[in-house]
Specification:
Structural class: alpha+beta
Radius of gyration: 25 Å
Number of strands: 8
Number of domains: 3
Order of helices and strands: EEHEEEHHHHHEHEEH
Helix content: 40-55%
Strand content: 25-35%
Strand order of the largest sheet: 1-2-6
Largest sheet: 3 strands, antiparallel
Length: about 220
């Protein structure tokens, strides 16, 4: 696939290549080892929770309620948040050049629970002299962080996998043209041009008019 960038007054063209099997393995590693978990719960006559995009449910447990005359049950389960990077890799594997742009600019945010717990503990101590409501809120926050740390004890930092991913993608410079030259070609074709997230497009006057009408 080809990737385009505007640099100064030039449009640069790059060839993007990779080994799909290697990229697939990295994607599976990220999904398996870097997905964040949190607890979910609900009360219903049957488990009917619907996951959000990028989520899956695991370890669904049905807990009977005493004197349950209405057939309602309490459910608790793990909500697994799969990193957005996994979906971007899927898009890359089917040739979506805009996915490469988003991967290239992806910001990895690995959580450090020890730092967060330290900060929450400090806030709890400082809240001791404040209202009981504020102290209770800080205590709830600390307990939640402790639970999250235990639930995500096996999670691994994503940064090494992200670096492995980027190192597995070969980017070869092909050449460049002045923007003015492309303007001349576009004018000759009675069109305009744009680069959206690395994808180059000529836009015909008819297509541009349709876009204008929609807006």
């Amino acid at each position: 696939m080809y990737y385009y960038e505007i640099k100064d007054s030039f449009v640069e063209k790059y060839l993007i290549t990779f080994n799909p099997e290697q990229i697939q393995l990295i994607k599976e590693e990220i999904a398996r080892k870097c997905s964040f978990k949190r607890k979910g719960k609900m009360m219903s006559t049957g488990f009917n929770a619907i996951p959000e995009a990028g989520e899956v449910f695991e370890n669904i447990e049905e807990i009977k309620i005493e004197d349950n005359t209405e057939g309602v049950y309490y459910y608790q389960f793990d909500i697994v948040n799969i990193p957005k990077l996994v979906q971007l890799i899927d898009d890359l594997l089917v040739g979506d050049v805009q996915a490469y742009y988003q991967i290239k600019n992806y910001v990895v945010n690995d959580r450090n629970f020890d730092e967060e717990i330290f900060g929450a503990s400090k806030d709890l101590v400082e809240s001791s002299s404040n209202s009981s409501t504020n102290k209770s809120q800080q205590l709830d926050k600390l307990e939640e962080l402790l639970e999250l740390k235990e639930l995500n004890a096996d999670i691994e930092p994503m940064q090494p996998y992200y670096e492995a991913l980027m190192n597995s993608i070969d980017v070869q410079f092909i050449g460049r043209l002045r923007s003015e030259k492309i303007d001349e070609v576009a004018s000759f074709l009675n069109s305009s041009w744009e680069i959206v997230n690395g994808e180059f497009k000529f836009i015909s006057s008819e297509e541009k008019e349709k876009q204008y009408i929609k807006e």
